């Protein structure tokens, strides 16, 4: 019982810690204006145009750190603070999302693979726990195994997300530095923002892997008791 409590505390604390870390880092550098005075919109537009992506749109989006790139509509969506703000944080986040557009432009393998996993990962994350719990109650091993397979698909999506996000951040830094959109000590701040944001994906993948391992071990244990 104590072991389970410790386990659930760990998987609860990891994502909370990562979320607090990214919010604190973002808020710190949101108060630091970049030396060019460029808003997140201007940073994104400059990078897109420099790479010939004139057809990719940039839209203002509601919410806190709700920034994302939609490959279906070729649209970079930036939260209001980053769309209108001229901070180091706004420049870093805007460039990161454009990094995904650059991946899309070159048909980046991991991005393509992640996109193909979306339907099964979405279904798996919703259905796996239902199947696992019902299977354990009913002692229906085939149902448990199906739940584990669906959960594994959702975990695979989380794992594949890591190289996609790290690569987008790497591209972002290359672009903002080469185009002179951030300068000197601002580069360090931008990296801190992107690294903190990456932690949320690492935390999500770690928790997902731990949960998958827990159910696999439970399944093996149940079969071993037969």
Briefly characterize the structure.
By secondary structure, the chain is mostly helical. The chain is 75% helix and 6% strand.
What does this structure look like?
With 226 residues, the protein is mostly helical. The protein has one domain (2-224). It contains seven helices and three strands; from the N terminus they run ααβββααααα. A three-stranded mixed sheet has the order 1-3-2. The mean pLDDT is 94.
Q: What's the structural blueprint in terms of helices and strands?
A:
Layout: H1 2-30, H2 40-50, E1 57-61, E2 68-70, E3 75-79, H3 80-84, H4 88-105, H5 109-138, H6 141-178, H7 186-224
Parallel strand pairs: 1-3
Antiparallel strand pairs: 2-3
Helix pairs in contact: 1-7, 2-4, 4-6, 4-7, 5-6, 6-7
Shape: elongated
Oligomer: single chain
Which stretches are poorly predicted, pLDDT < 50 over at least 5 residues? none
Number of contiguous helices: 7
**Count of all domains:** 1
